[in-house]
Design a protein that fits this description.
5 strands; 3-stranded antiparallel sheet; about 110 residues; Calcium-transporting ATPase, cytoplasmic domain N; two-stranded antiparallel sheet; alpha+beta; 4 helices; single chain
């Protein structure tokens, strides 16, 4: 959540729409400096698909480097991570798995939801 909330939003506490402000405040309550994450990640961002009403989601791909020790490596070891936010029904219809807090791939079942 801290990574996705930080990198996949463009607003600030002073200037954001209601949804982004809620995400930023949540990340802040987790004790994360979202501005620091953005500074470190936006320079390495690979690709961003801005929110659009047809897709009903926004997606950002970011590449992590060795200096980001707090990030959990993916199961494949690749340093690229995708963060998506948007309408739950649009996101969930494309998902079959998720990465748990240890970076391990887990099946997304009705029990998890």
């Amino acid at each position: 959540m801290k990574e996705g909330g930080s990198i996949n939003s463009l607003g600030t506490v002073e200037n954001a729409d209601a949804t982004e402000l809620a995400i930023i405040k949540f990340v802040d309550q987790l004790g994360v400096d979202y501005a620091d994450y953005r500074t470190r990640l936006h320079g390495t961002r690979l690709l961003r698909f801005p929110f659009d009403s047809g897709r009903k989601r926004m997606t950002t791909f970011a590449q992590y480097d060795q200096s980001m020790k707090e990030t959990v490596p993916t199961e494949t070891g690749y340093p690229v991570r995708m963060h998506t936010k948007g309408a739950a029904e649009k996101i969930m219809e494309t998902c079959s798995h998720y990465l748990d807090h240890e970076g391990k791939k887990q099946e997304l079942t009705d029990q998890v939801l």
